[in-house]
Write a structure and sequence with these properties.
The protein has 372 residues and is an alpha/beta fold. The strands form two sheets. Strands 4, 5, 6, 7, 8, 9, 10, 11 and 12 form a nine-stranded mixed sheet that branches. It has a three-stranded antiparallel sheet with strand order 1-3-2, with no helix packed on it. Helix 8 links the parallel strand 8 and strand 9.
């Protein structure tokens, strides 16, 4: 792995130029064979920290030890927030990084760590140094569904993490194709019961939040409908818009705009209260199925063993961000819900994870899903 601090360069245009200038500086230690690889390695990041005018070279596929970097940069430190790759998570991660960076007075790098339902990136943070500089934006998939889907995931969702705080809740919508002859949730239920053998629903893949929630709903209303897994929620939404599938259960995000524009028929939101982004969308409570409560969430975690004072500082920063009206508006515009103070602290966050495991593991088990 190559990870060094070097003096500032006025113009850094290509990696080859960086390496040439490093060699000329005379204070650069490197492995000859590895540096040859890096001259064309597409994953190498070159980050210039403007306030210090230093350049940090990192290989994001490596397990970085950045403590020396933080010491050199002092108050201009960069925090790395890894979010386990899901399409509906990324907007929240970007918004959080921007606002939390301002709150802490630091730059924050957000990395989309895809693979194995988000468990690859989650495992990296579980094994990272517990110094507060490597954090995870986890979710329902990484900390509940993974218990069934990825038995060899390499981490324990409870034991290997220190919850910092709940960032956002994302109630899931049931959205039907525009041509489906339904007007509300009750007519949807009646239609699905009558035509279940010829209907299907889509999701972002086996074990995704959309898969879990639709399966949960189907159990509650007593139907057995074919599941069509896609590689991402965007692909499932595209299939719905094209009329290739009958319905989806999707978190706030892209589907919110499609429902608002009339391209997708909004059926119900699986929440107790209506959402500001779609105030005309009735809740499952209003529609007579109060048991249908399913909310995705994003939570910030640090590795287990992170000192309490660091967890407290980061938790305080999360609280400040949640109280920022600009941050709240951006989440609400996505269709997300900003957690209340008593829902967002580390203790409440840990209890939420425990409760979600207890709720969703039986749902996935009953679905007969084979572990990966």
């Amino acid at each position: 792995m190559l990870s060094v601090i070097i003096p500032a360069f006025n113009e850094v245009k290509t990696l080859a130029q960086v390496i040439d200038q490093l060699r000329a500086a005379g204070s650069f230690a490197y492995d000859t064979e590895f540096i040859g690889e890096l001259t064309y390695h597409p994953l190498l990041c070159v980050i210039q920290v403007a306030t210090t005018k230093q350049v940090w070279l990192i290989d994001p596929m490596a397990d970085l030890d950045l403590r020396g970097f933080w010491e050199l940069l002092a108050d201009d430190a960069v925090e790395k927030v890894v979010h386990a790759g899901q399409q509906d998570v990324e907007p929240v991660a970007r918004i959080l990084g921007e606002h939390m960076g301002r709150t802490l007075g630091q730059s924050i790098i957000v990395e989309n760590a895809v693979g194995a339902g988000g468990t690859t990136g989650t495992q990296r943070i579980a094994r990272a140094a517990p110094d507060g500089y490597r954090l995870l934006l986890g979710n329902l998939g990484t900390h509940a569904a993974s218990m069934v889907l990825y038995p060899n995931r390499g981490y324990d969702p409870i034991a290997d993490f220190e919850p910092i705080g709940l960032i956002a809740s994302l109630p899931l919508f049931v959205g039907a194709k525009k041509s489906l002859p339904v007007t509300d949730f009750q007519s949807f239920i009646a239609h699905v019961k009558q035509h279940q053998k010829s209907m299907n629903y889509g999701s972002a893949g086996i074990g995704s939040s959309g898969h879990m929630v639709c399966h949960f709903m189907n159990q509650l209303i007593g139907v057995d409908v074919q599941h069509v897994p896609y590689r991402a929620s965007g692909q499932a939404l595209s299939a719905l818009l094209a009329g290739d599938i009958d319905y989806v259960c999707d978190a706030a995000g892209a589907i919110t705009e499609q429902i608002a524009s009339g391209n997708v028929r909004g059926v119900v939101v699986s929440a107790k209260e209506r959402l500001a982004a779609l105030p005309d969308m009735p809740t499952s409570v209003e529609q007579g199925l109060p048991a249908f409560q399913a909310v995705g969430w994003n939570m910030l975690f640090a590795p287990k063993g992170t000192p309490p004072e660091i967890v407290s500082k980061l938790s305080g920063a999360v609280e400040d961000v949640l109280n920022d009206p600009a941050f709240a508006k951006r989440l609400v515009d996505l269709g997300a819900v900003v957690p209340k103070p008593n829902e967002a602290d580390p203790v409440a966050s840990r209890e939420l994870v425990r409760g979600e495991i207890d709720k969703w593991v039986p749902v996935l088990t009953s679905a007969g899903i084979t572990p990966n």
